[in-house]
Design a protein that fits this description.
This protein is mostly beta strands. It is built from no helices and 11 strands. The strands form 2 sheets. Strands 2, 4, 5, 6, 9, 10 and 11 form a 7-stranded mixed sheet that branches. The protein has a 4-stranded antiparallel sheet with strand order 1-3-8-7, with no helix packed on it.
């Protein structure tokens, strides 16, 4: 069973950048499809981005396309989310997600706050 630990959130001004990362342990990392979700106060958790096992295929929510980039380093068991041109509406807790054969695993989340 994989364990996920996020880091790299924080407070940034609108237009700025952050690069949260998610370190995985306890599983064979390159077997998992990895992704990021976020949850803003009073809202449901929503999909942000995902990346295939090899890293060759990525998918994004329309709200972040062109601004966010997901990547992974299978040698370091880590997935990243490069977030550029941040907006106040990107403020949320960002959760790392791993999936394998219908099983889902979540990290504890990292707070991202974008000030206007």
């Amino acid at each position: 069973q994989v364990q996920l630990v996020e880091s790299g959130g924080g407070l940034v001004q609108a237009g700025g950048s952050l690069r949260p990362s998610c370190a995985a342990s306890g599983g064979t990392f390159d077997r998992y499809v990895m992704g990021w979700f976020r949850q803003a106060p009073g809202k449901e958790r929503e999909f942000v981005a995902s990346i295939s096992r090899s890293g060759g295929k990525t998918s994004y929510a329309d709200s972040v396309k062109g601004r966010f980039t997901i990547s992974r380093d299978n040698g370091k068991n880590t997935v990243y989310l490069q977030m550029n041109t941040l907006k106040p509406e990107d403020t949320a807790v960002y959760y790392c997600h791993a999936s394998l054969w219908g099983l889902n695993y979540w990290g504890q989340g990292t707070q991202v706050t974008v000030s206007s």
